[in-house]
Amino acid sequence: MDIYLRAGNGFFVPSIVADHLLGIASHDQLKVLLYVLAHPDTALTADAIASACKVRPENTEEALSFWQDANVLTVNRGLPAVSLTEAAPDNPTAEQPPVPAQSAEEPAAKPKRAKKPPQTDSSRFKLNPGEIAERTNSNPDIRDMFQGIESFAGTLKPTQMQSCIWMNEVLGLAPQVILMLCHYCHTVGHFAPRYWELIAQDWSDRGINTYTLAEQDIDRRQKSHTYTGRLKRIFGMKPELDPTPNQQELFDSWQQAGFSEDLVAYAFERCRDKGNVESPFSYVDGILKSWTQKGITTVEAAKLEGAEFAAAQKTKRSGSAAPSASPKQPADVRIDGEPSINMDTIKGFINQF
């Protein structure tokens, strides 16, 4: 089928847009670009573009920044609209000043390279959309990784794609491992570079870079996430708030020790019975440690231990408060505060007469 352009005015669209950027540009970004290219001699504002394209003003600003980063649009009329190579020197034919010759006796000193601080996130790893497109097209593994992520998370933003490439090129994680990591973060509701880069750094440090090792660590994290959520409900913590680092450390230690949520809940109940609500976490931790020393691992065993302890305390108290033997009554027994009458004394007195 032959396709012909109908009558009407046309405008130029840089070939880089069709060759490399269609796969990563959003619908709104393409609408904004086409409108701007169709009005090259018009002074446009973000609000005017947003109104004409039926796009939100904030999305318009983002779209303009996107195409400027891709070197498709520029705010300087003195520069070309499309530039994929580094700018040439202003005067390439000018003679360069001669370099002083090194003495044969003095070897050339090697320039000292400043040590670069280790990159713990992708904030200093900058890629423009054209560079992202080049990596995507030249590396099938990267392309498959992006397609896999977008299958459950939707269209990726350039910052998210840049972060994934950073994890691959700087941390050395395999694309399939990055795909698993992003899927886990999406499952737990933390689909953001700031969150997954922390895990990626941990994986890189621990050598987790295979499907099997990543699957094992994700399984551990999922169990920990579920365990923490239940403990938050036990302690009455707000669902939207994360535990403090100290609280999370206690939760992790309880999980590693094998304490069930029911056992932690019973320890917290004991804590409230004692009226210790100012520092329940450390108090509960002390109770659990004491149960560990006694070999107590179930709520039933903890209740039995508590009943035995209460009975022993009751016996101890009753033993210390036992009444002593009644003292012998004196011969002079008093009734209502007065001495009682001794009949033998009365008889002896009468016999004298």
Briefly note the structural class of the backbone.
Answer: mainly alpha
Helical fraction: 55-70%
| Neighbour order of strands in the largest sheet | 1-2
Examine the coordinates and then state which fold CATH places here, giving the name of the CATH topology of the domain at 228-317.
Answer: Arc Repressor Mutant, subunit A
What integer is the average pLDDT?
A: 78
Q: CATH first level of the domain at 228-317: which class?
A: Mainly Alpha
Overview of this structure, please?
With 353 residues, this protein is mainly α. Among the domains are: 15-69; 123-209, no CATH class; 228-317, Orthogonal Bundle (Arc Repressor Mutant, subunit A). Helices cover 56% and strands 1% of the residues. It contains 15 helices and two strands. The protein has a two-stranded antiparallel ribbon. Helix 10 (211-234) runs parallel beside helix 12 (261-273). The relative contact order is 0.05.
